[in-house]
Amino acid sequence: MSLTLQPISREQHLAYIRSLPSASHCQVPAWADVKSEWRAENLGWFDADGRQVGAGLVLYRQLPKVKRYLAYLPEGPVIDWQAPNLEAWLTPMLAHLKRQGAFSVKMGPPVIIRRWEAPTIKAGIADPDVKRLRDVNADVVEPQAFEVAERLRRMGWQQGEDGGAGFGDVQPRYVFQVPLAGRSLDEVFKGFNQLWRRNVKKAEKAGVEVVQGGLEHFGEWQRLYEITAERDKFRPRPQAYFERMWKVLNAEEPGRMRLYFALHNGECLAATTMLTVGGHVWYSYGASANHGREVRPSNAIQWQMMKDAHAAGAHVYDLRGIGDALVDSDHLFGLIQFKVGTGGQAAEYLGEWDYPLNKLLHKALDIYMSRR
């Protein structure tokens, strides 16, 4: 298969994404506007007949004082990852990025390697000898994903070390997903564990109301988000980041980003953001107050988002990152414990991969990042 790669317009890129069942929200053209501190480029792959068969959003981060760049394709590129001639796709990409001044390339193949069903995870949590998800036999293993990994290694790509939740600019390797395709809402609800079903009903009985907000409501979002950041000890993003995300994503595709609030007696107790690309819906960010948990606003808001995703014809509701630790002493254990109650699946992606175009500068970046 003869392939050519060339820069494309945002319109070409978006048209290609719209032609697919889904793609990562990190690979839509507007994501470049969300990550405005990076320089962006849209790339397209074309077959011998001139038909577009792939796309990639590249984000360039410049090294201080030097016109050399880290080139990053978060959860991309959007290509045929099962193709036997993977070199034909990636070799011209590396050559192009090198010409653009990249010293290193980082990408995140959107390829799932293993899946664990909720009962399997629960059994792992209950087993004192099991410490991590990777220690539990997966319910589904994708042999082709291992072949992709082996091809990448043979080409000189190096797998990133981060095997945990990977929050921040590094995308999560482990996620939790609730399948919606071919299931009724009643079947989805019955898939919840007993505690989740009870908490959803408790929220309904207590009068928790879940509503959608708009751009003018991000002040309330930020208030809850900063409470959450202080409680969970992470550095919050500024309100302007979320407002920019809302504006650029919804300008590209109306309804791509939604904002939800869970209200009790008129007070906001929880808030979330939701992203949609094709049939894939993500729970993106969450925030909650330090009080009012007894009326279960977080369960109520998640259930409403799942219902809205189902009504929109989504095939999967993605709760995004989890850690792989199955012991309660780990600070991320609460995430997997909460999400496993939805009765969905944990999925492991291939993770992020690096290609050093300039080994000296790539090594220097590694040292710098390890000391941050």
Automatic annotation (TrEMBL):
Coiled-coil residue windows: none
Domain of life: Bacteria
PROSITE patterns referenced in this protein's UniProt entry, alphabetically: FEMABX
Keywords: Acyltransferase, Cell shape, Cell wall biogenesis/degradation, Peptidoglycan synthesis, Transferase
Pfam families: FemAB (PF02388)
InterPro entries membership: Acyl_CoA_acyltransferase, FEMABX, PG_Glycine_Bridge_Synth
Gene3D superfamilies linked: 3.40.630.30
Keyword Oxidoreductase recorded: no
Entry keyword annotation includes Transport: no
Homology family: Belongs to the FemABX family.
Protein name: Peptidoglycan bridge formation glycyltransferase FemX
Provenance organism: Streptomyces synnematoformans
